Amino acid sequence: MGNTVLETVRTLLPAIAERARATDEKGRIPDRTVRELTGAGVFRMLQPRPFGGREADLVEFYEVIRAISAVCCSTGWVASVLGVHPWQLGLFPEQAQREVWGTDPDTLVSSAYAPVGRLTPVDDGYRLTGRWSFSSGCHYARWALLGALVIGDQGRPVDFLSVLVPRSDYRIEDVWDVVGLRGTASNDILVEQAFVPRHHVIRNYEQAQLKGPGQKINRGPLYRLPFGAVFTSAVTAPVVGAVAGGYDSYVAATKERGSLSLGGGRFAEDPYAQVAIARAASEIDATVLQMDRNIRELTAHAAQGRDIPMELRLRTRRDQVRGTERAVTAIDLLFKTAGGHSLRRGSPIERAWRDAHAGSVHVANDVERTLAMYGRGALGLTVEDNLV
Predict the structure, then answer these.
(1) Does this model's pTM top 0.85?
(2) Among 174, 146, 140, 136, which Cα is nearest to 359's?
């Protein structure tokens, strides 16, 4: 039996770690890294089997992403986002999937889901115009999934769609200059009056109902899971991985570090450092345990053909946003107790701190709104949200 994706990825981690600082400084992942992750099968983990994919277990996918992110969060973030799109494309009509993967199953797809695009109905499809921000890894993709509103006769939005657009129909504007996740090259995508055939769209409402045309050929349980669980967990996984990597670096450095506050003694003897380590480790463990539990339960329901309870969908989102929040709490503890050592530009602690905070501001990590949504459900009130 060949190596698993995780086993193969682990052999790549030392080299990815060596490139982490350059990735951060140059604002883009090296082409070599993308080729290596492609060769390892990372981007095909959630891809449908009819098009060369593995249809891997989601828990395994997130474990791979955390491992990559532990040495370079920008690389892990791009691997996660580009790696989750094949799952969503598996919900599109078969013709769309064939156009993307028919000649090259390693073709990548980026995204920008904010509904800022405008779709005008025409014969056999739509005309699309818009500008989208934050399309991570878009330079490596030959297609993009973009959020757009259908504009009716009265000039008002009548539907919310995810639209599949080929690279020939959009241009990328390099605007990415940020404090964290610098290497993700999450640039802008611009489209002007591009024709979109009907088989290149999927309704967000239909997707929220756990339905999609692609289920006719992709019958596995993977393609009967909520977007609100699969995609948002792919946003949290890199954050948790980065913090876990920062934790490992902190513990290793603390074992060797002296301490002026202890009269020259070893910093490892400082009870405040010991408590910080314990608290951070607990936050990381709690996040991974809760998220993995929820994903396994969702998958079990789908595999057995049972309806997925709204309670479970809401709990998955609750624990996902709390997972990001816990990870940020953990890295803040370590950053603070690491003292001046955490301020060095490019150090693992400093980079993990910046990257975790940057990842936490993604809309999928809107803690208050998501927790309020969970509370509504617990109180028996109606919950209507495409990210459940």
Answers:
(1) yes
(2) 136
